[in-house]
Amino acid sequence: MTVCIVGSKNPVKLNAARKALSLSLQLPALEAIGVNVPSGVPDQPMNTAQTRDGAVNRVKACLAEADERSIAQDWFIAIEGGVDMFDDGPATFAFVAIYHQGIWSVGRSANLPLPPSVFTALQAGEELGPLMDKLFNTDNIKQKGGAIGLLTNHLATRQSVYELAITLAMAKFNYPDLY
């Protein structure tokens, strides 16, 4: 069975990796194993560079813990959510990093615009998930639909956005001779 090591035990990230990778590889079953590893960035990454670094660092930490068999056979995926200020205002997004048999692919999700008051609170040191829980009277939304689900009336969710980002990053593995 194909195994995917995910640099988090968050069920949203595990489910996104499992679903996107199994669809991309056209596999009937895929085992996704979550590993708590450090991102090497703040709990709430506040810019694009920190967010990208967090995803890549998580995969590198997974690789450092893996045995030779795992590195040769398994897929390694990490997802890091972050925020930044863009020309059109503050937004949240995620980076995905994928490693398999010596090949890296790093991709990014779409932006979700954030209310200015939310971004101000994040700049003051709050984390997006707990902040959204306070605003919407939810519990542990970051392991459910996320801010994305709340702000899109659940038309998109944290998992659906992560799945799409992973699917896009898989292009490099789908057509390696083009890359």
Structural write-up:
This protein has 179 residues and is an alpha/beta fold. It has a single domain, classed as Maf protein (Alpha-Beta Complex), CATH 3.90.950.10. The protein contains 8 helices and 6 strands. The protein has helices spanning 11-24, 48-65, 68-73, 116-123, 128-136, 146-151, 158-169, 171-174, and strands spanning 3-6, 31-34, 75-86, 89-100, 103-108, 112-113. Strands 1, 2, 3, 4, 5 and 6 form a 6-stranded mixed β-sheet that branches. The longest helix has 18 residues, at 48-65. The radius of gyration is 16 Å and the shape is globular.
Helix tally equals: 8
Note the overall shape: globular
Q: How many structural domains?
A: 1
How many DSSP E strands? 6
Sheet with most strands: 6 strands, mixed
Distance between the termini: 27 Å
CATH topology-level name = Maf protein
Per CATH, the class reads Alpha Beta
Please supply descriptive tags for the structure shown above.
179 residues, alpha/beta, Maf protein, six-stranded mixed beta sheet, 6 strands, 43% helix, 22% strand, globular
Describe the protein's topology:
Layout: E1 3-6, H1 11-24, E2 31-34, H2 48-65, H3 68-73, E3 75-86, E4 89-100, E5 103-108, E6 112-113, H4 116-123, H5 128-136, H6 146-151, H7 158-169, H8 171-174
Parallel strand pairs: 1-2, 1-3
Antiparallel strand pairs: 3-4, 4-5, 4-6
Helix pairs in contact: 1-7
Short description, anyone?
The chain has eight helices and six strands; from the N terminus they run βαβααββββααααα.
